[in-house]
Specification:
Belongs to the Fmt family. It comes from Candidatus Mcinerneyibacterium aminivorans. One of its GO terms (molecular function) is methionyl-tRNA formyltransferase activity. Its EC number is 2.1.2.9. Helix content is 27%, strand content 30%. The protein is α/β, with parallel strands linked by helices and 308 residues long. The chain has two domains: 198 residues, Rossmann fold (3-Layer(aba) Sandwich); 94 residues, Formyl transferase, C-terminal domain (Methionyl-tRNA Fmet Formyltransferase, Chain A, domain 2), CATH 3.10.25. It has a seven-stranded mixed beta sheet, with helices on one face. A hairpin with a 5-residue loop joins strand 16 and strand 17. Helix 1 packs parallel to helix 2, helix 1 packs parallel to helix 6 and helix 5 packs antiparallel against helix 7. The longest helix has 25 residues. The radius of gyration is 23 Å and the shape is elongated.
């Protein structure tokens, strides 16, 4: 099976590794190296580094054009495989392979189409997630489904831990699906668009804690935005990142956002809509991440102060 791989970021790395072991990877498409740091040096992405290691031809276009179309037509791949690529692929590219172009998406489609499904399933309190392998079309994450691979979401799951599980599941899902395609033992099932939900691209401001929300929503938010962009709040006008919390449902009769308890066993208790959120791991602006005991010892935190 001759394959052209299109991917970007660490999420796509396990799939490239496994596909390279099983099939002939003719070329790898990834985003161009970018300049960063004080020296503005070019920094190659994880996929470009892997492709270099494997000796695979690398393409880094800013967009698809006639040049890329001609290049791919000469390769005449059986499949194009896409994982977390981020570049819009036009129909004249999708239609080049002998079979078609497939994608591994980190949700159980049609739920959570879009850029941030891993964060969104945790934020919404879902009990399951997974990988959907589907045939790409011109609409975002809307093509016919080939297979779904489901896993449970743990009670303490963070976006980081779920990301790690799903990127390895994606690799196995692709191997299985491609072998099924090769054998002809697959089907294409249209998605039910009426059941579609969306996970839009995360902005840093989305991670600001709203103390008027339920304690469960705030706790899920902290896990959903770990390890980026990290949930945050403000105390005395200064940003405080929140990495871990514990919650208790109870009526505090206090204004939401107010510190109602300094508990050296549980944390800094902050009033929310239906209970208390205990801050366990936090990071003041310009300082290291610390546990709540160190924060209590080093900062003038008192009951009655308000987080904004």
């Amino acid at each position: 099976m001759n394959i052209v791989y299109m991917g970007n970021s660490g999420f796509a790395a396990p799939s490239l590794k496994k596909l390279n072991q099983e099939f002939n990877i003719q070329a790898v498409y990834t985003k161009p190296a970018r300049r960063c740091g004080r020296g503005m040096n070019l920094k190659k992405g994880k996929i470009e580094k892997l492709a270099n290691k494997f000796g695979i031809d690398i393409r880094t276009p800013h967009k698809f054009d006639e040049k890329e179309k001609n290049y791919l037509e000469k390769l005449n791949p059986d499949l194009i495989v896409v994982v977390c690529y981020g570049l819009k692929i036009p129909k004249y590219i999708l239609d080049i392979p002998a079979y078609f172009t497939i994608n591994a998406h980190a949700s159980l489609l049609p739920e959570y189409r879009g850029a941030s499904p891993i964060n969104k399933v945790i934020l919404e309190g879902e009990e399951k997630s997974g990988i959907t392998v589907f045939k790409l079309n011109e609409k975002w994450d809307a093509g016919d489904i080939i297979n779904k691979y489901e896993i449970d979401i743990e009670e303490d799951e963070t976006a980081e831990s779920l990301w790690e599980k799903l990127r390895h599941l994606a690799a196995d899902a692709l191997i299985n699906s491609i072998n099924n395609i090769k054998r002809g033992s697959y089907s294409l099932t249209p998605q039910d668009d009426s059941r579609a939900t969306y996970a839009h691209k995360i902005r840093k401001k989305d991670a600001k804690i709203d103390w008027n929300k339920s304690v469960e929503r705030i706790e899920r938010m902290v896990r959903a935005y770990y390890s980026w962009p990290i949930a945050y709040t403000y105390l005395n006008g200064k940003r405080l990142k929140v990495y871990k919390v514990e919650i208790e449902k109870k009526d505090t009769n206090k204004e939401n956002g107010k510190v109602v308890e300094i508990n050296r066993d549980r944390g800094i208790g902050v009033s929310a809509e239906d209970g208390i959120v205990y801050l366990k791991e936090i990071q003041p602006a310009g300082k290291r991440k610390m546990n709540f005991q160190d924060f209590i010892n080093g900062y003038d935190i008192k009951e009655g102060q308000k987080f904004e």
